[in-house]
Design goal:
6 helices; two-component regulatory system; histidine phosphotransfer kinase activity; mainly alpha; Four Helix Bundle (Hemerythrin (Met), subunit A); cytokinin signaling pathway; 191 residues; elongated; Histidine-containing phosphotransfer protein
């Protein structure tokens, strides 16, 4: 008795037999110790990190070039700080010290009777502070401010103090961006 053609196996097809399933292998945990934790990529050899650092350096150099072109800081002064590795620390000191000095001057200017001698002393201190990073525009604004406290013109002082504050904020913002980029580059590992 023969099977109809639809049930005849083609000899080119693999044969399927109904044998028992393969045995299930049971292993103890001791046979397979836990995998060691993944270690972070080697910063010295990771191409992704070195590419990221290179891109960040390009961004940092472009940012610095913009700061120099716009006159935010003097290139010679600030490049000398960068070359000796103190730019970030000096920038942090400038940001904190200048903020406090401007705030102290602002407080003095709010008094009904302004102590212009104290304002002058603080302004001189601010000018030394701005010179440390080469913030020439802030320094020039301080000199303009000085013209008004020299003649004890409170209204002129208030207007020119706004200019000092605004220019300080520009320098601070640009330096904060520089410091963030420097920190990101450092996080990528050595050069």
């Amino acid at each position: 008795h023969s099977l109809p053609n639809a049930y005849v196996r083609d000899p080119r097809e693999p044969s399927y037999t109904t044998s028992a399933p393969p045995p299930v292998l049971v292993h103890s945990a001791a046979e397979f110790p836990p995998s060691p934790p993944l270690s972070p990529p080697d910063r010295r050899t990771s191409p992704r990190l070195s590419m990221a650092a290179a891109a960040l350096r390009v961004q940092l150099n472009a940012h610095m070039a913009g700061m120099y072109t716009e006159g935010v800081v003097d290139e010679d002064t600030f490049e000398a700080l960068r070359e000796d590795g103190s730019a970030v620390e000096v920038a942090r000191l400038f940001i904190n010290d200048a903020y406090e000095i401007v705030d102290d001057i602002d407080t003095l200017m709010e008094q009904p009777e302004v102590d212009f001698d104290e304002v002058e002393a603080l302004t001189q201190q601010l000018m030394r502070c701005t010179s440390s990073v080469g913030a020439q525009q802030v320094n020039l604004a301080c000199m303009h401010f000085g013209d008004f406290y020299a003649i004890k013109c409170k209204q002129g002082c208030l207007v020119s103090l706004d200019l000092v504050r605004n220019l300080y904020c520009i320098v601070r913002n640009d330096m904060e961006i520089m410091m963030q980029l420097e920190d990101q580059i450092a996080a990528c590992g050595p050069k």
